[in-house]
Design brief:
This protein has 11 helices and 8 strands. By secondary structure, the chain is α/β, with parallel strands linked by helices. The longest helix is centred in the last third of the chain and has 19 residues. The model has no long low-confidence stretch (mean pLDDT about 95). The structure holds phosphoenolpyruvate (PEP). The site of phosphoenolpyruvate has 13 residues, from β8.
Length: about 250
Amino acid sequence: MRRKLAAGNWKMNGTTAALSELEALTRAFPSPTVDVLICPPATLLHRAAEAVRGTGITVGGQDCHAATSGAHTGDISADMLVDAGANTVILGHSERREDHDEQNEDVRAKARAAMDAGLKAIICVGESLEQREAANTLEIIGGQMSGSIPDQSTGENLIVAYEPIWAIGTGKVPTLNEIGEVHDFIRARLERRFGEGVGRSVRLLYGGSVKPSNAAEIFGVSNVDGALVGGASLKAADFSGIVEALEKT
Ligand code: PEP
């Protein structure tokens, strides 16, 4: 059985005051029946980890460097994320692929480092609108998976997030059939590469304009094991609606 996961990505949002949202979330879900993860900016990570200590909620990073240490000004290693209290890291988000020109091999190297450090890696894949309109979605996702997911992946350390770029922060969401088609494809690819046991145990998240109002129907789609949520994870009230929908799935 795959345990459901509601993951929030705060991106470059939040200073000290935002920790009150996390505290509100811990009060709303003292013992969640699904995994609940918040990935705040690195500056808040340690305090966020303290805020959720002893609750069923965990915290993660939004990126890490592929090296364990060294002359990489401004970067953060996987070990540093662990040290700050993270158990997971988001890698290959489309904003990092675009803003920092991250390629699949960069994401794979970061994922290796994350897994070596004992972190779970949420590896993001997704097509642009142009690629979808050209009917290239599955080819793009397949290529991103082959290039970004390391061989050492297991059902424990790998989570794949399908995030169509055109759905992120836009309010646009693919149809349920389109989500199902991609998630079934990702599952089949994982089973082919890693074998049925591992392939079936990796959790698959959908991300892109998930809100309390559309969460339940998205969670009803086959092979959707939860969501990676941007905007609607910033406020405890909104994210709570999504966690509740996942708990009822
Ligand atoms: C994201 O950036 O991962 C995301 C899914 O954002 P949003 O929920 O705001 O579309």
